[in-house]
């Protein structure tokens, strides 16, 4: 492993790419601390500390914006408007003939699509920026301190321009990484935002020990559990079942070297982190609704069950995740499409008739392997809550025990490693290096 | 010429804005041109022998270490003088500039008919002075021969030797041609010779020298259109395919749509359930998809492919009891080319011919990678414009546009689009006869041998006689072309006349030329659109050469293959569908869609090439390693040392009987044979991996990365396998009567070559997976959920506050 790392820096181009990536990420982090003009930062911090909604959907958004949202900085909108725009354009491609044609036009079409995505990003982020500016103007701390001392058109306009420009800048930074650095820039930007909270969380832990609130042994145990969890998540992300496939196009001669045979790798967790996000979004709804009725007796008793510390919450949450795993797997992996495609190109699973039967065969296996996958996923999602309940750690620290954060971190890390490996492979015959160990990446997070 | 007109200027700026890379500015070359002009009077005074003598001096100076750059002006001026004396032609300034551009390793775009062949003489001469050989790669064999014959006198006048390689030439002649200072040949022949060289067992058998400089004619076709086709060399094995006749019979009995279906673009087919049951019943083999039936299924697939996807008179001809393949690009019969993987046998069975022996793939290289083996390349074409970025990306070639010597006055008439094939045929006949009545020569470009014959028949029925130029008539190519520009000539051609062909108005007679010119010059009619606008423009370019008058028009139908394949009809709104079957569709929308269709195809082809290129990069490195190993064995004593150290006793035994020379030859042969075999097996297995590697994408892995990993893993076993085989062969060597019994080490030699296409966009349409592939898909969900919530949030809060206030009240 260490040898592999050394070899990374032996290749000048790779070294350059890695350094470039780091520099861009630093720029991104710095920008995440520059506040929008016209904000009373202290009031803002006070508000978020007071607000119980800090745990709501906004906090999830904040997670992806790397904490920039909470601080109302120029990067508050994060990269998300760009992602929304990409998705909308991609979806348009499935519906609107014009975009469909563009997608098929190769190079030229792709250029145009990129162009439209950028316009879309500007549009969406200015809409969101307007929303944010209205939101910021509306909030006050309990002591009546306004977050925006001088609200009005001027502030809205200023916020709109800075936030939109911020998002466009992040988009550009991300593209630069993808082009000249290592890994997928967009993924890395989200990744770095999440992982940036880890040093703080560690510091908290250290203070717990230093303050004598926690035994060192407990802490060692906690870290041990974290390592095991991470290993488990890696296994969950990479676990595959291989289904052999044959192509009866050429008469296959004897296999001298015994290379791997062709197969479909079916993941035990095809859906990735999506089910957790879906489930989380659903679970926020009752919480948010409950906050509107602080005085209702019934609602208060309900609220107890919908506290993240309650076992009922865990069970509902876990069940939702299992459900959404199946739901999203069905969307993302359509066995009928796969079977159809294989049929069209002369591929078949030995002993299984192409077409409908093959689809059924794949569907069967997929259903079977998704069950353990989804249960593991549910467990990983609930684990942070369990940890916070039984050991008194900050939620910030606990979130690295699973859930969205850990899955995304592991996913992006594996992906980036895969990219590094591909760079190494391209230079395999440059006489520099040998095997660097196998890294199986996952779909781009 | 020096002042660009406004349109050109605008075009240039627009191109720049779009990030284009084409150069329009020629001022950099004008200085050199002026120097060349200044030298001219001095050279004009020299006697013929003095010119040749000066040329020898140049050669000597280069050998003594002068750089080509310092002698560029002298060489160009001398070559110009030689051209004007030996050919009685005065090269234009534009041709000299083109020559300078090419010498600089760039690609020149000169309009059709501007004399590219002559322009190539200058850089060819200059670079040949180094004595390391210059290859002029032409588009087809006919042009290689024609250009070599035409330019031969110039080079001979300058004291250089010239060679020409043609398909089917024996090795000795090839070696002689390659040894010449300048060699005219097709890129494919050069590539195949490279592959054959990679299978030679003695240094004397090699035909190529090491590569030095290549000038590529019709560069866009060779570097872009044909580049994706791998050249494959195969050796015949003694085995014969068994039972293809039976399979052919079964395949013949299958009906489209009931027993099998085509995919959207009619490139692949698959059996339906009914078809599978039908076949299983005939063959009585149980489930045809069972593992034990794989071979049967493969044969059946070949038979169906041969029966229903390949058509006589389009894809191949049957002549002299053999199947002959028609080259997709040049429209000519390709010598010694076959289909791979049992398809050849299936075709032969379909046509009821005797089966040829089965081939084993020994080596392959894509044209693209082969051309990259030249340290320096340059090119020329008439149609580089839309391909310039690709040329730069893949080959580092910059495009320079040379303005025409005389402006082109050809009239490009708007397309005539008809609803049906039948209507198109009628319209073609009408258009041809109208033009013919005036005596104007007409050239019609068709897509296939079958189509050209069909049209010729239709013309015959209308009482018009015409010449047909297609793969069947390839022997008559030169005379047909020579007559094609004469008064009243009608020539129906396939894409054989698409590129490079020079049709002289009036057949070269001055008076007749004026008559033809008065009638409007040559009228080119295209009966089909091609996959790229560049190819269309090449066909148009047969008319209006060197400022001659001319006209061109495409007559198409909505039922043309290209449009059917890509379902043009469905792209058109119902209201644009024609009302009457015979009337042309007069709508700019249709024309626009046609152009868009071509852009889509071009885009897809670029993608195929990019993918193919990225997949073969690793293989090319491995090939280079094997090549080095091979060279070492071929030219050095390493084979002897290997056997001496690894098979000592056998080595001593042989060494005591055989002469050292003989022993070296045998050792080399065995080493090389084993290495080639190991490489061939490697390629076969890689091809297998390649076939299904895209499936790994379903598991979220990068297919390219996965492919590279497996290729590297496999490749490590190649030298080991080669050594094992070599040792086995060596131990098996037996002595007979004090000499070697060579039968104990039977060797295969290659006898057939062919090319085939690789398709690489199988999972393009996997929407579910591909949809959110390039962006963080989890973040995607967040933003799609949380983004709108950001807008809703203030409103929700306000609502919450209101509710609370009401409660408090």
Number of strands of chain A: 4
User: Strand tally of chain B, please?
Assistant: 24
Q: Tell me the helix content of chain B.
A: 40-55%
Major interchain interface with per-chain residue totals: A-B, 110 and 104 residues
**Tally of separate helices of chain A:** 18
For CATH, the homologous superfamily of chain A is named as SecY subunit domain
Category by helix and strand content of chain A: mainly alpha
**Straight-line N-to-C gap of chain B:** 89 Å
**Into which percentage range does the β-strand content of chain B fall?**
5-15%
Radius of gyration of chain B: 31 Å
Work out the strand percent of chain A.
Answer: under 5%
Q: Quote the average pLDDT of chain A.
A: 81
Strand order of the largest sheet of chain A: 1-3
List its salient traits:
heterodimer, A: 445 residues, mainly alpha, Preprotein translocase SecY subunit, two-stranded antiparallel sheet, two-stranded antiparallel ribbon, 3% strand, globular, disordered C terminus, B: 809 residues, alpha/beta, seven-stranded parallel beta sheet, 31 helices, 24 strands, 51% helix, 12% strand
Characterise this structure:
The complex is a heterodimer of chains A (445) and B (809). In chain A, 68% of the residues lie in helices and 3% in strands. Chain A has 445 residues and is mainly alpha-helical. Chain A has one domain: SecY subunit domain (Preprotein translocase SecY subunit), CATH 1.10.3370. Chain A has a two-stranded antiparallel ribbon with strand order 1-3. Chain A is globular and about 80 Å long. By secondary structure, chain B is an alpha/beta fold. In chain B, helix 21 (533-540) links the parallel strand 20 (522-526) and strand 21 (550-557). In chain B, helix 3 (48-63) runs antiparallel to helix 4, helix 25 crosses helix 26 (648-657) and helix 27 (660-692) runs antiparallel to helix 28. The radius of gyration of chain B is 31 Å and the shape is globular. Chain B starts with 5 loop residues before the first helix and ends with a helix.
